[in-house]
Amino acid sequence: MTARQYERWSAPFRGKGAGRALNLFNRAATGLCYAAYPVALLALLLRRDERGIPALLVPAVSFLLVSVFRSRYNAPRPYEVLEIDPLIHKNTRGHSFPSRHVFSMFVIAMTFLWLWPPLGAIFLLLGALLAVCRVVGGVHFPRDVLAGAAMGVAAGLCYWMFW
Question: Contact, 75 vs 93, CB < 8 A?
Answer without folding.
Answer: no
